[in-house]
Amino acid sequence: MATKRSFFERLSGTASIDDAFDAFDDELPTASLPVRDDSRGSELPTTTMLPEEGSANGEGQLPVDVYQTPNDIIVRSFVAGVRPDELNISISRDMVEIEGTRSEREQISGPDYFSRELFWGSFTRTILLPQEVDVEASTASAKDGLLTIILPKLDKARQTKIKVKAG
Prior knowledge:
- The protein is built from one helix and ten strands; from the N terminus they run H-E-E-E-E-E-E-E-E-E-E.
- By secondary structure, the protein is mainly beta.
């Protein structure tokens, strides 16, 4: 009868010396982190925020891409099935919050589903920005289900000279 390798043996890849009791025999299966390969060839862990069923507040998380250009920070997210008037976007100098509701257009009873993976209901996402942005000059647009928010960066290095008035 083959014995199960101990936790240390599995961790280090070594062979067993004795048949000691392993307190970690009933481990839960582990999930590996997804990795992506960037243009420099190094592997970086990525995180994906997916809607959690039965979350405490009943809201789903909205997956987003956030990237920068020399002058702007861009936030993109798929909001297919959400009308623009159902989206609320709040922008401060260092944060963006996207809220909305994706409503089912027709009601289908539970037993009639073979698979149910789409998220319906309210969602929210708060994104902390890596740099301060110009709130007044920010824009948002939605086309073909893709929400794009353009946030112009504030140039902290820019200086303005003013003249002192006598008076």
